[in-house]
Design brief:
mainly alpha, P1 Nuclease, two-stranded parallel ribbon, binds 2-acetamido-2-deoxy-beta-D-glucopyranose, binds zinc ion
């Protein structure tokens, strides 16, 4: 127990600063998604990507992690802390079921954030900066929600307080970090010659084949969460001997845990990429039809005003004529 506390202090910084797939995971998801955007969607979101990034969606995918990171945003990071709780949700330990009204009070969790930012992105009552932030948050959170431990247990803060050794007996790390980055890094090193581009090509083929999710609703956030929760209970918190991982002892995980879990990481990255693309493509369509209907509304208003002016003008002319006629009648009858 005292060892855990020691590690807790040692890794306090990590606990504070690690909020999702590492930059590589988020960048891969955004790249997978961008490869599948309709050209109209792509040019729409391009408006929001700073021009020196040449429309590269991957380059903004980790922004929500960076703004709350003392090291990356030393002057402003405090101002963004409210957004920290939007990167994840937690369920009661081993409860294995996500219930919005219990686990996402006042929408302050990743499900609420996904809803919030997909609405704000296409709601023109928000200004350019607000919509840009909505896009950056949305791209990031679609990634986070597919990292199973972003829907992990409350008792250990989604695996942040479960500490131990992964492949390496010298450096203790937490389980959340194993899932954010470690498994993926070792996977890329071993199976893809340390070349992220090769890994990307492989994930892209997965996205088109196995995990091509036909007939999904573009915004079924609850389904994505339920999947993460079920992986959490089925495999994430179980060691090689199917013994439950928890904060009371250090884990020692290696070859077997790695082999059992990298396929799930591939699957979640591919799913996130495909779902992010279909979400953005659909939002782009919703936005166009919204824009069209507001244009039609404007047209109708203009027509009504025109018609009203016409009616008043006609009426005015008629009344004027009638008055003149009366005057004339009065004059002639006298
Ligand atoms: C783009 O511009 C921003 C702000 O001027 C700067 O912080 C960032 O480093 C630039 N990025 C690249 C890739 O040039
Ligand atoms: C896009 O951004 C990502 C993440 O910053 C970077 O790794 C990648 O090289 C960029 N791609 C291009 C084509 O600039
Ligand atoms: C919705 O977005 C706004 C602007 O970023 C933020 O202030 C608010 O906390 C968000 N709410 C949720 C539930 O994400
Ligand atoms: C173990 O950790 C050390 C220190 O961080 C690192 O240099 C080394 O590469 C790691 N070994 C493996 C097998 O990951
Ligand atoms: C998808 O929807 C179409 C049309 O509703 C249906 O014909 C098809 O069987 C569905 N495919 C799957 C895999 O559910
Ligand atoms: Zn995150």
């Amino acid at each position: 127990m005292s060892i855990s506390i020691f590690y807790f202090i040692l890794f306090y910084q990590e606990i504070l600063y690690v909020f999702g797939w590492g930059p590589i995971g988020h960048s891969l998801i955004a790249r997978l998604a961008q490869s599948q955007l309709d050209s109209s969607t792509n040019s729409w979101i391009n408006n929001y990507i700073p021009s020196n990034l040449s429309g590269n969606l991957s380059a903004i995918a980790s922004w929500p992690d960076e703004i709350i990171d003392l090291n990356k945003n030393p002057f402003d990071y405090n101002k963004w802390q409210w957004s920290h709780e939007l990167h994840f949700l937690t369920i009661p330990d081993w409860n294995c079921k996500y219930i919005s009204r219990r686990d996402c009070l006042n929408n302050r969790c990743i499900e609420g954030a996904l809803k919030n930012y997909s609405e704000r992105l296409i709601d023109n009552n928000y200004d350019y900066i607000q919509q840009q932030q909505a896009l950056f948050f949305l791209v990031h959170f679609v990634g986070d929600v597919h990292q199973p431990l972003h829907c992990g247990f409350k008792g250990d803060f989604g695996g942040h307080n479960v500490i131990g050794f992964f492949f390496n007996k010298t450096n203790p790390i937490n389980l959340h970090y194993v899932w954010d980055s470690e498994i993926m890094n070792i996977h890329i090193n071993r199976h893809f010659q340390s070349d992220v581009n090769l890994y990307y090509e492989y994930l892209k083929s997965l996205m088109f084949n196995q995990y091509f999710l036909i007939n999904e609703t573009y915004n079924d956030y609850k389904k994505w969460i339920d999947e993460s929760v079920s992986y959490v209970c089925k495999q994430v918190y179980l060691d090689d001997n199917n013994i439950k991982l928890d904060i009371s002892r250090n884990f020692v995980l290696g070859e077997e845990y790695f082999n059992r879990n990298w396929p799930l990481i591939d699957q979640r990255l591919a799913q996130a990429g495909r779902r992010l693309a279909s979400l953005l493509n659909q939002l782009s369509k919703n936005r166009s039809s919204k824009k069209l209907s507001s244009e039609i509304q404007t047209l109708i208003i203009i027509l009504c005003i025109g018609l009203a002016i016409g009616i008043f003008a006609t009426l005015g002319v008629y009344l004027y004529k009638r008055k003149k006629n009366r005057e004339y009648d009065v004059l002639t009858s006298e």
